[in-house]
Amino acid sequence: MDKFKGESIIDFFEKYKTDLDCLEYLSMIKWKDGYKCSKCNHDKFTVRKANFARDCNRCHHIESPTANTLFHKVKFGVRKAFGIAFEMSATTKSISASQIAKRYSVSRPTAWLFMHKVRKAMKSSESHPMEGTVYVDEYSYRLNRSIHKQTIFDNLINRMVRSQHIDYQQIKISN
């Protein structure tokens, strides 16, 4: 599956029509450098077509594309989680948890907690620098998101896949 190159939410949901489309994309990113079983370190596997999970040929440990990522144990569906991540990465203004809750038919606390996970993944890190020409808006000193929406989304998904799972209990509320 190719990277998403569109800019509109309509194009986005046209590309990711189902949770399975999202799982396929996650598996492509997660195992782009090859698969190694997290239990026995074996590198031979079988792909489960139902959800793109990897089944180790030695110990038969099954690892989901969402395992040990920020998408791990998301109860409202990977497609909705992708949509929320896309909207947060593609909009120039902040979006509230109440707006996300209404758009994606989730509770406000669920939206708030997932958005917190996404924001944590979006924080600057040296491990996933942006590539190519990066334009800075001279007024707000922020990335010109209208030009690089697909780059921002791909970078965010990459960070979310590479990040460790965060339990909701681990999110600290700062005043």
What's the topology here?
Layout: H1 9-15, H2 19-30, E1 45-48, E2 53-56, E3 62-63, H3 78-90, H4 97-104, H5 108-122, H6 149-162
Antiparallel strand pairs: 1-2, 2-3
Order of helices and strands: HHEEEHHHH
Spatial order of the strands forming the largest sheet? 1-2-3
Class by SSE composition: mainly alpha
What's the overall average pLDDT, rounded?
82
Strand content: 5-15%
Uncertain runs are 137-143
Radius of gyration: 17 Å
- Treating each run of at least 4 consecutive H or I residues as one helix, how many helices? 6
Q: What percentage of residues falls in helices of 4 or more residues?
A: 25-40%
Q: What is the terminal-to-terminal distance? A: 42 Å
Q: Give the total of domains.
A: 1
General form: globular
Short description:
The protein has helices spanning 9-15, 19-30, 78-90, 97-104, 108-122, 149-162; strands at residues 45-48, 53-56, 62-63.
Overview of the structural elements:
With 175 residues, the chain is mainly alpha-helical. The chain has one domain (9-170). Helix content is 39%, strand content 6%. It has a three-stranded antiparallel sheet, with no helix packed on it. Helix 3 crosses helix 5 (108-122) and helix 4 packs across helix 5. The protein is globular. Residues 137-143 have low confidence and may be disordered.
Which characteristics define this entry?
3 strands, 3-stranded antiparallel sheet, 175 residues, mainly alpha
